């Protein structure tokens, strides 16, 4: 049996998809990954075969810098970073205005390339990143079934009156003016309509008999898979989802890192892991504030500087571990707290490890993800641009509290135990091979 994995050329997308695919690999089945060259080493590290498929202009092998991107993409990335400094609505507005070129790149050509890959590899099952719109367009136009994996927060698939790009909920730390929210929604509705028109135009070329979409952002495969813990999702929204399965998380196995393992073993002090992921680590101003907040506490800090200048943290305490990249899963296994931007990989991996979360969301579905962490009682969310050193320190102290069942740490630990009992890769395999029936609205 052969599994085909279709992923954009971004490490943050490929890593969870590849982790799900290990369930096929463990059973001796073939795994082929269709993605771009920037992530070829990740495919090789997993021991999978690769066919070349470049679904978009940009790429990200692990840490992203504007100067590493193609002409045009570099300026767009700098514009995005500038928008995060302005705030929640400004960032979401910037992303809405860039959305069509980001998500539906050369749709007819890419759809046909995907179909050519399917024809060449003859897969028994297919896993596709939900945000690979060009790939899903091709599969939908040909009536090919596939596992549609929503790697971000489930709100990446709008339902009911929701509009893609407009968060259905966010933490109380953010209080955008109502008129700004109304203008943002109107912009996202306009983008939705133009995106849908572009989707339908491409679909008509690929399959003139296909039914046009009313909202291309709301399109999804029949085998809908949510890479997210159901416990962090609002029950009322869960009840309105189309037929689906919650995977919990796709926690990867990392190669050994002797330096990190020795550092973890060197002291009994509690560990705080700090990372803003591959994109938002550029916000060294916020990382610096977090470092200043943690400095007086009786903890050791593992700080991933990412695309920030390491010199900004040259004065870190001697027992801290400061590197450009750190093995997140390994550190979470030994951490008492994570300070994160709220990317879905970070949120779900921390939840699986049973680690409390201090979430500082900057963009996209990070706001909804942060709200889920807060509502489930496993973390605190603050606004990254305005949270002071003292507020960050106070939140960290609260999350580091140890005690009875009512503490955040105890709730996080309980959630982690439940998620580890049934790994996401096992759920994905059973669902895609028909061994586990999906949940549907009528059964919620």
Characterise this structure.
By secondary structure, this protein is an alpha/beta fold. It has two domains: 2-251 and 423-439, Rossmann fold (3-Layer(aba) Sandwich); 258-421, Rossmann fold (3-Layer(aba) Sandwich). It is built from 17 helices and 13 strands. It has helices at residues 11-25, 40-46, 73-86, 88-103, 107-121, 133-141, 178-206, 235-238, 258-265, 277-280, 284-294, 328-333, 344-353, 366-375, 389-399, 408-421, 424-432; strands at 2-6, 30-35, 49-52, 125-129, 147-150, 223-226, 244-246, 270-275, 299-304, 321-323, 337-340, 357-359, 379-381. Strands 3-2-1-4-5-6-7 form a seven-stranded parallel sheet, sandwiched between helices. A six-stranded parallel sheet has the order 10-9-8-11-12-13, with helices on both faces. Strand 6 (223-226), helix 8 and strand 7 form a beta-alpha-beta unit. Helix 5 packs across helix 6 (133-141). The longest helix is centred in the middle third of the chain and has 29 residues, at 178-206. It is globular. The two termini are 33 Å apart. Residues 290-411 form the Erythromycin biosynthesis protein CIII-like C-terminal domain. Pfam families: EryCIII-like_C (PF06722). This is Glycosyltransferase.
